[in-house]
Structure formats: C-alpha cells, structure tokens
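Incident log, support desk, overnight shift.

02:14 A customer reports that sequence design results differ from what the structure should imply. Their input is reproduced verbatim below. On-call engineer (initials T.W.) acknowledged and began investigating.
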C-alpha cells in the first residue's frame, strides 16, 4: 500500500468504529487545523546540486534510531483496533528502527512489549491521586521502559471534541515534578510543553526531554512535514493517527509500510534540500515562508 492508501483505508475503517471519535481533536479542533496551516505556509528552498550522502539515522539521548520518526503517546485506541495491536505496532517499530510511546492506562503487557526490544517511553497523566502516579511510574520503571514522564498538558484531564476521556487530574508544580525526577532512574520526559513559561519550568525541573522542542507531534502526515519539523529545531517527530491508520489498514505490515514510506519521502526531501542528516536540518536555511 502507498501512504495515501493507508490513510484512506485506515480512516474509513476507524471512522466506522464506536471509538472512531478518538481521531478527532479537542473541542474546536484548533490545534489540528493550525498545524496544517503552518505546514502549508512554508516551502523548501531546493539545493539539488550537491554531493552529500543522506542518512535518516539519529540519536535521542541514549537511544539510536534509524529514523527521526516515533510513535506519539497513546495506548487505548491501539488495543481496540486489532487483537494484540500493541504487539504488532511494537514489532513494526522495532523493525523500522523507530521508538514506541505509550500512555495511560499503562499497557497490561508492558513487560512483553519491552522484551520485543523496541525503545519504549511511558508517560503518566497527572492524576490528582499523586500516590497513584508514583505507583504507575514505579510499575513502568520495573517493566524496563527506556524513558519515563508526565503528560503535563493533561492537568485538567483530556477531551476529544466535547467528550471527556480522562478525568481526576490536576496540574503539577515544579516542586512535585522535581521530586518525581529524583525518584526515577530513567530519562525524565515532560509531554505537552506549549509555551516559553512551561519550557523554563521544565529546565528548573531538570527534564531530560520535552515534547514540542526535542520532540514535536501533531498533524505530521508526509515526509516533507517531518523535515519541516526537524528544520524548526525538533530532533524527532511523533505520529499518532497515522500509526492508527496503518494498524487498521494493514496490521503490523501496515505500520511497517507507513514508517518505511515516510522515511523514503523524508530521505528524498533531505536530498533535494542538502540536508545530510536529521541533526543538521535546522542549521541551513531550507524553509521560506510563502506569505
């Protein structure tokens, strides 16, 4: 299947399911629409005359990846799309040299996923029951995940359109996050940093990774989108809905094809813009506003 076929078939299958609403955005879906507008507002400056050897390989902290493309944080939809869905996704990501990111609830087979050998990030929502948060972090650490973190943007739970899908959460303070950071031995991730204020707070916490700077996600669909994310300064791009589309459309092979095709598109875009590897995408002027 091509990328277009994966997206069309996957969307058609999932929209017919009871949980198909998870493909939508929060309330007015502003973020999804805004990201698409941003992608359209920038174009590449071509550098076709060059003699560089392009590689999509990259390193995130202590993790080597074949591609700067990872799975965004999610658990629930995958388990409902196909039997052993998480296992299938983990195997596909392992084979393509990507990274898996799971959220709340913690997968019941987390140890089995870790055993597959794919790097795994586990993030936890800031539940008001802080003892529950610490228990979940300990559970994930004992399972052997690669990184641990908190979804700081879920301080009031999460919504899809007007449906509340996560409750009983409350914002965490810098001191609380510092305490969590001290209590875990894995690299510590803060997901949902969307302002300079929170970025500065993340520095005070001592976070090893923040999602929007080191990793960005939200609306990325083609290899050219991924290169734009790298050009803006990200080190990797996360995919949410595309992973779901790939799993729905073709199971393990669908996810494998998705990552492989996106990597090929990315490699082509890098070659045509003179970007030799993901780490240097932001160093050259490869983007120009169309406005």
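02:41 Re-run completed on a clean worker. Output:
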């Amino acid at each position: 299947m091509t990328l277009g076929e994966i997206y069309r078939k996957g969307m058609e299958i999932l929209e017919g399911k009871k949980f198909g609403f998870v493909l939508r955005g929060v309330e007015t879906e502003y973020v999804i629409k805004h990201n698409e507008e941003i992608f359209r507002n920038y174009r590449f400056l071509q550098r076709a005359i060059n003699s560089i050897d392009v590689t999509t390989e990259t390193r995130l902290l202590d993790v080597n990846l074949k591609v700067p493309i990872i799975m965004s944080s999610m658990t629930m939809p995958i388990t409902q799309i196909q039997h052993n869905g998480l296992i299938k996704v983990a195997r596909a990501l392992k084979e393509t040299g990507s990274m898996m990111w799971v959220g709340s609830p913690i997968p019941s087979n987390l140890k089995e996923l870790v055993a597959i050998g794919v790097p795994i990030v586990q993030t936890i929502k800031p539940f008001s029951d802080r003892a529950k948060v610490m228990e979940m972090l300990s559970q994930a650490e004992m399972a052997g995940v690669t990184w641990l973190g908190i979804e700081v943007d879920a301080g009031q739970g999460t919504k899809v359109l007007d449906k509340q899908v996560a409750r009983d959460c409350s914002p965490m303070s810098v001191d609380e996050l510092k305490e969590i950071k001290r209590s875990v031995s894995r690299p510590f991730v803060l997901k949902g940093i969307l302002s300079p204020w929170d970025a500065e707070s993340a520095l005070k916490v001592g976070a090893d990774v923040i999602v929007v700077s080191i990793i960005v996600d939200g609306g990325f669909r083609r290899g050219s989108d991924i290169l734009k994310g790298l050009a803006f300064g990200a080190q990797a791009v996360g995919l949410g809905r595309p992973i779901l589309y790939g799993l729905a459309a073709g199971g393990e092979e669908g996810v494998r094809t998705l990552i492989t095709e996106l990597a090929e598109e990315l490699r082509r875009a890098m070659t045509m813009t003179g970007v030799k590897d993901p780490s240097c995408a932001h160093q050259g002027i490869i983007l120009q506003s169309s406005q």
